[in-house]
Amino acid sequence: KQEVTQIPAALSVPEGENLVLNCSFTDSAIYNLQWFRQDPGKGLTSLLLIQSSQREQTSGRLNASLDKSSGRSTLYIAASQPGDSATYLCAVSNDYKLSFGAGTTVTVRA
Amino acid sequence: GAGVSQSPSNKVTEKGKDVELRCDPISGHTALYWYRQSLGQGLEFLIYFQGNSAPDKSGLPSDRFSAERTGGSVSTLTIQRTQQEDSAVYLCASSLAVGNRANVLTFGAGSRLTVL
User: Fold this and answer.
1) Which residues of A are less than 8 Å from B93 in CB distance?
2) Is the pLDDT of residue B93 over 80?
């Protein structure tokens, strides 16, 4: 069974600092890895998807890396803003099923 | 539609009652998924549909849970004889297809179920 762990569980930083969120998974036989953002009371918004053959993906201030052999991914958010405050979820896919981590709740202080 | 629509957004029911949760996926998306997000439990997979077929129902917690999809579009998740432990946010997602490594899921806002 795929186990996904996210560290830290919570993070509070001043505006402008870079954020580093970690995700690890136990079974490296994955199709892809996705990072989602969830705002309180809302659904999930897909931020980045990294296919199993890829090493990283970038979108604006966001960069995600994937090391499939070691079962790790890192999400970097550059120059954080208060609007980045949310819960960030990592999910790995084995074709049709996503296995989610418990998330990292980020607070960016103005 | 432009996004995945779920209804109701909030549902409060009494223990023992049946509830139906509806999901309207993005037009043209053949794959549809149901997940449950419970407090302290994280997100768990319930079921997925490819067209109107549900190849994997293994995530449904008990036989009180069932789901169907008609016309390759709208899906309904039904919970019979609700229990307090069914209280959660039920999230629906859709995607173009299954089995594609570039498969991005689009989630709805969820249906929050509270069983008193």
Assistant:
1) 44
2) yes
Could you tell me if B10 lies within 8 Å of chain A, comparing CB atoms? no
Task: Please answer yes or no on whether B108 and A99 come within 8 Å at the CB atom.
Answer: no
Which 81-110 residues of chain B touch chain A by CB within 8 A? Answer: 91, 93, 98-99, 101-110
pLDDT, tens digit, for every residue of B56-70? Answer: 888 999 999 999 999
Identity of the amino acid at B86: D
Q: Are A83 and A109 in contact (CB under 8 A)?
A: no
* Structure tokens, A47: 């931020």
Cite the beta strand spans of chain A per DSSP E.
4-7, 10-14, 19-25, 32-38, 44-51, 56-59, 62-67, 72-77, 86-93, 98-100, 104-109
CA atoms within 13 A on the CB side of B47: 22
Chain A residues lying within 8 Å of B48, measured CB to CB: 96-97
